[in-house]
Amino acid sequence: MESVTQEVHHCDYATVVGTIRIQESHDCIIAVNLIHQSEGIPLSTAEETPVLREAATQLSEYFGGTRTEFSLPLNPIGTPFQLAVWKALCQIPYGETRSYRDIAEMIGNPKAVRAVGMANHRNPITFIIPCHRVIGSDGSLTGYGGGLPLKQFLLDLEQPHACITQ
Length: 166
Hints:
- By secondary structure, the protein is of the alpha+beta class.
- It folds into two domains: about 10-65; about 80-160, Winged helix-like DNA-binding domain superfamily/Winged helix DNA-binding domain (Arc Repressor Mutant, subunit A, Orthogonal Bundle).
- It has helices spanning about 50-65, 80-90, 100-105, 115-120, 150-160; strands at about 10-15, 20-25, 30-35, 100, 135.
- Strands 1-2-3 form a three-stranded antiparallel beta sheet, covered by helices on one side.
- Strand 1 (about 10-15) and strand 2 (about 20-25) form a beta hairpin.
- It is globular, with a radius of gyration of 16 Å.
């Protein structure tokens, strides 16, 4: 049996929210994560590829308020349930939020609210797969891997573009 090796490239980029590491494999983004310099991870662009460079550009535009949608090839690694949740997250329009219950209903599993929360927490492509747009059913901010202040920052960034419905 042959072993298939997944060649992964990564680069670190300084952004307004901190240093992020973007990873790609086979021309698809597989991860975007905040990294903390206190972890001793050096800032690196040694493995920059065209896909990583484009992802960094689009994220910079997003953080600058000029990009509302991403157009990148994504390949998050997860279970079929997680993939369904992450796909549903990508359907939340810029400037809008949904509850965990809304996401559970979107994927056809209305009783899976807690499991949706766990899948949201395990989102490997943060910012691009907008897990920050998921809030409590009462409208409250709930857990976010980058911390609630970052979640609030991202929601505030998108708020001027929110659709007002009546």
